[in-house]
Amino acid sequence: MEQYLVTGMSCAACSARVEKAVSGVPGVTGCSVSLLTNSMGVEGTAAPAEVIRAVEEAGYGASLKGTESQPAAQAADGLRDTETPRLKKRLLASLGFLLVLMYFSMGAHMWGWPVPKALEGNHVAMGLLQLLLSAIVMVINQKFFISGFRGLLHRAPNMDTLVAMGSGVSFLWSVAVLFRMTSAQARGDLPAVMGYMNQFYFESAAMILTLITVGKMLEARSKGRTTDALKSLMKLAPQSAVLLRDGREVTVPIDQVRMGDVFVVRPGENLPVDGVVISGSGSVDESALTGESIPVDKAEGDVVSAATVNRSGFLTCRATRVGQDTTLSQIIQMVSDAAATKAPIARIADRVSGVFVPAVLGIAAVTTVIWLLAGQTPAFALARGIAVLVISCPCALGLATPVAIMVGNGLGAKHGILFKTAVALEETGKAQIIALDKTGTITQGEPRVTELIPAEGVPEAELLTAACALERGSEHPLARAVLRYGEEKGCAIREVRDFTALPGNGLQASLDGETLVGGSLKYIGHRLSLPDALRRRAAQLAAEGKTPLVFARGERLLGMIAVADTLREDSPEAIAALKRMGLKVVMLTGDNRRTAEAIGRQAGVDEVIAGVLPDGKEDVVRQLKEAGRVIMVGDGINDAPALTRADIGMAIGVGTDVALDAADVVLMKSNLSDAAAAIRLSRATLRNIHENLFWAFFYNVIGIPLAAGVWYPLFGWQLSPMFGAAAMSLSSFCVVSNALRLNLFRLKDGTKDRPGTPVGEDAFRRVIGEIQNNMKQEEKNMTRTIQVNGMMCAHCEAHVKKALEAIDGVTSAAPSHEQHNVVLEMTREVPAEELRQAVADAGYEFVG
User: I need a labelling partner for 360 at 20 to 30 A (CA). Which of 368, 418, 736, 781 fits?
Assistant: First the structure.
């Protein structure tokens, strides 16, 4: 998508006109114009020059972001509020002359305030003074007239057209009345002169422009605040970096840092670019990027990101990403791109905006004619027509959606939740089913010790010391889990001799002259007589999806350690929150059914679908979509096909890799609760958009008939053009202010969660049944069972599974370390020798 800056737009009618013009350029496949950021996103093969020419022919200006023709301030970030100061100057100048005009037109005429002697009784001079003062206000606000009449010339009237015509007609009418009053005064017809004085609308012409400028300034100020979250991020990015060159520290501008440069960061300093720590250690505050308030410890080999703050320690790092490639730049670009896209709900306002201004011009003309035909004076009829022009506000319609999208995106970015498009932000909250990958999403993704069960009379410390000594010689993931647990407990790891990894799920070594063994219950059971209580406990642990490891020294049983890929701390509560919001939670995993169901029960999911291959997850998601809207949550790499297939793909725990193509929503942290927060934020944003659209439509539906005098015959209600202008000036301000309320939304607070549109229970059950039946049917297709020794846990199963599924003709492999076998599903008869080689290459023994 190419990004452009568009100048000269004042309302939704303008953005609709630009969008229509660019969409007609050959080669353009998609175009989205944002009135909020005055930006445009264009997709397709059209040349930038053709796109810019189309915008200019429509009566507006355009420049490609990042080009020399673009103003420097906007090229830097496109977020700086330059409009409010300009409007403030215009407003102050307008108010100065308007107050003087109001003194003479109303104060002196209606309330008898003193005036210079030269003007006493000289009504023509008083009229000329009002003409001069109102003309000055019109010159100050000439932008309305230039933009408005240029729109008319291009047959694309906009809000400025309405303002310009309302003010211009008031002024021209008053000039005409002034000429007639001059004639009356020349004739000495004093009653006629006084009558003409009451028909002046000079103050209305000036007041309309001033009040609209007030509204525009408030609107611009509020719009500027919608990007506060992004601007606060940008302020964190330092302007310089301290590089190490030839052993000396050199401070250089940030744009001179190159990939591979070595830089240093002291406590309290911001990291200038993304990098990796090559020496030193410290504590880094990453809250600006992830929303996580607790600083993260960093040591040699750890990744660091620009805009984070080193709270303690001295870090020496090597730059890995600079300029537009840093995580911070990618986040800013992603939110900017999202602002340049349109949510589906915005299309309603766009369709209305496209015909709104011409319709209002027609209504104003018809209103004036009808009142004239009804016998009212030209002044009364004209006032009604002008009121219709100035009270109508297409701006509120055009801003209703983009301001809420921008605020919602900014709030999400502050908490490490990134929506790539406005569509993603809108659609996330409409989901009815959420499919969760088990490993790394619901669970930690790496095994951990969950229970330490010493044998009778054996201290925990002795069991743990022996286990750590034995596992030290193994590279197995379960061994790393035991060693990590020992380090956390401060266990001294002793040296062993004659270490051997034995086929059949066991390890053996010598410690202090005694044989130390460890492994599966079955393996140790062949060497020792194990108590029934231990066997029952091991069976219970296995049923919970855990792997029991039994240890013995000589002929003495030491005890058992249970290892498992444990649930993330926040997973049960996050899943409960998702269910409170009315979503059906489905867990997808390649694990065997018993392990999967054990994890599913602990997590509290609605359904478990086990034995699913990565490419099979895509098929499951496709079937789930038959029941309702689906969110798929995964790691964004292995689950890419399923993320792409889902209505909304949500990549979790991506850290600094935020630019994942497969995901619609990126969660920078590994907290499943952020998925619930993303849905919560989406619903709050959509609710805010509905409120804004209601206000925009309601305002116009009520305001236009009132201004036209529809209620005058019944209740005597009539609206002065000045009050109409005041109402118009506040309408957009109210919409933007309502959107800013989203900044107060607590997206991590689930106490007010309410169910969304639920999925049909019958349809959901039917689809789940079909998925389970399909998987059972697939199991019958050319199934073969082979015997494999050496597997000890689910991680061994994963190694064997990967090796066998790489063979052409093997569609799936389901290993079992307990049964020492692998169930294969094949599309052809694979030779035994080919299977043997694959198993041997993975480090295990093929039996037959």
Answer: 736
